[in-house]
Amino acid sequence: MARVLLVDESEAVRQALQRVLESVGHTVLHASDGRAALASLKRDEVQLALVDLGVPAIDDSPLIERIRERFPGTKLIAMGHTPRSTAAVAVQKGILAAIRKPFGANEVLDAVSRGLRDEVGSEESLKQDHRGQRDTDQ
Q1: Region at 125 (left for phi over 0; alpha for psi -120 to 50; beta for the rest)
Q2: Which whole number is the average pLDDT over 40-56?
Q3: Is the CB of residue 100 less than 8 Å from the CB of residue 81?
Q4: Distance in angstroms (rounded) separating the CA atoms of residues 9 and 25
Q5: Which of 2, 35, 51, 90 is the 20 to 30 A CA-CA neighbour of 57?
Q6: How far apart are CA 14 and CA 123, in angstroms?
Q7: Separation of alpha carbons 16 and 125, rounded Å
Q8: Is the bond preceding residue 102 a cis peptide, omega within 30 degrees?
Q9: Domains of the chain (ranges plus CATH)?
């Protein structure tokens, strides 16, 4: 299975995601901020990173962009609270998937599985990932 980096300021979110991902055999590393995330990527071979879009930027550059520039082989999944902005950022940045918070275990596992298979999503397919949830981000 893959080595996955979780980047989220919330320890509770990181712990919950860690339990879900380890339950299917992934090795999980985690970081609570951008500096720790970049240090982990530099130190450890990571196949995929789940990155909360709310994690503070570094030197006026969004973390997800820094990861794309410095570690282009790392696959990225964006996490966020609003579906339209999450999907739009994912499509613009070539991110493999985007998931909306709050999310369930199956949604995370599906996104990670698709991400590891390099299934790049379109904005439309990313919106469909949020079945049953109204898109209230205007």
Answers
A1: alpha
A2: 92
A3: yes
A4: 24
A5: 2
A6: 26
A7: 25
A8: yes
A9: 3-128 (3.40.50.2300)
Note the pLDDT tens digit of each residue in 4-19. Answer: 999 999 999 999 999 9
54, amino acid identity: G
User: Each residue of 121-138: pLDDT tens digit?
Assistant: 433 334 333 333 333 333
Nearest-10 crossing angle of helices 34-43, 63-70: 20
3-state secondary structure the chain: CCEEEEECCCHHHHHHHHHHHHCCCCEEEEECCHHHHHHHHHHCCCCEEEEECCCCCECCECHHHHHHHHCCCCEEEEEECCHHHHHHHHHHHCCCEEEECCCCHHHHHHHHHHHHCCCCCCHHHHHHCCCCCCCCCC
Beta bridge partner(s), residue 80: 100
Average pLDDT for the chain: 80
CB 90 within 8 A of CB 126: yes
Q: What is the mean pLDDT of residues 47-76?
A: 86
Q: Which residue in 72, 79, 60, 66 sits closest to 20, CA to CA?
A: 79
